[in-house]
Amino acid sequence: MKNFFSYGHAARRVPAFILFVSVCAGLWAGPRETARELERKGSYPAAVSAYEEWLKSNTSSPDWASILLHAADIHPEVRAAIALLEKYAPFAPDAAVKRNIFAKTAALCEISGEIAKAQKLFEDAYAAAPSEAAMPHLYASARLLFELGELDRSEKFLRIVSGYGKDLVLKKKAAFLHARIFAARGNGLQALGSAEELTSSAYSPDDNEAILLFVYSLAHSLNRQEEKERALARLGREYPDSPELRLALLTPGVPASVMPLPTASSLLNPFGLAEESPALAGTPPASAGKEAAPPGREAASPPPEALATVAARTETPPGQGGLVSPTQTADSTTLGIQTGSFSLRENADYMVQDLTRLGFPAVVKEERGRTGALIYKVVVPVAAASSEQEEVQKLLIQLKEKGVEGFLLF
Description:
Layout lengths: L1 H27 L2 H10 L3 H13 L7 H11 L3 H11 L6 H17 L3 H14 L6 H13 L3 H14 L3 H17 L3 H11 L9 H14 L3 H14 L4 H6 L55 H11 L20 E8 L2 H13 L5 E6 L5 E9 L6 H13 L5 E3 L1
Antiparallel strand pairs: 1-3, 1-4, 2-3
């Protein structure tokens, strides 16, 4: 009986012991365990703070880099996540970790619209540990340089990716971006041939939808009916449910069910109006001269019906809807569709001239970038009363019909 009662007494003490151990474990849990628990509960700001507490005292841990990147991933505020990565980047234990931190920071900067900063960080990520693993970062840097209008540097980086990279999909992306550079420089036919080649059976089918849409749009602006019809036929046959096909089939005057997502690259004209007007591509004409069109060839004029449509819109008094008068400048009460962004005023003026010739009054807005340098943005003003989505979409489509991409500024 004594042994029985002793056993029963011990058994009764087991749950209390387990409870005691559980409480102590909770009290003794480190910041990392606390962070994981908070993350499971959905308390992400608190979880990030706990992870950061762990990061401060565990810089030599092999898990340090992965915890830092994870904390940035779950941070609910993009700019705060960028600040977190910048704070701890100097403590990176080696070049490969520093490369990953730079690349993650660059991706977040691009999301937040800090394109120039993102480009520099992608470039730094490649420079921190140049290797095959870093080639996507160099390509990303080239892509953003293209968006910023720095075509020479973009082309330089693309040559490295194409010449030394081993990833065939990435090399195809680089070749496509190179074709877009050709178009931006006014070499429309070269761009068209290069892009069409990339959709042949000699290459992987990756990104073919985007490339075919580019070919279709470029062929349209160059009046190359055969290439245009061929690209449209392939889109319909091979990618019948793609957004690219729907974009290609946009009909003037019909509200679009699919609209292109505005990106920084859309500020450069990628579709070959540069063939008739180099300025619209976001770069100055060839160094041999500053003609708006190749020698011996007049720049194409918009059809009369298009000019009539635009004229009808510009006759609307400012503040009553429609476009703002070309003599106005954009102010805080005026919305606008941005069609270009340049580091040189001369390039912005070229685009304004071309847009005006096409029937779209445009102005140049000067802004200071993060580095303090002036940025010249080309804007087609829209009076505030015309900010309804349908009205703005009509104007965006009219611009797109002329090969001009843009997005609404609020």
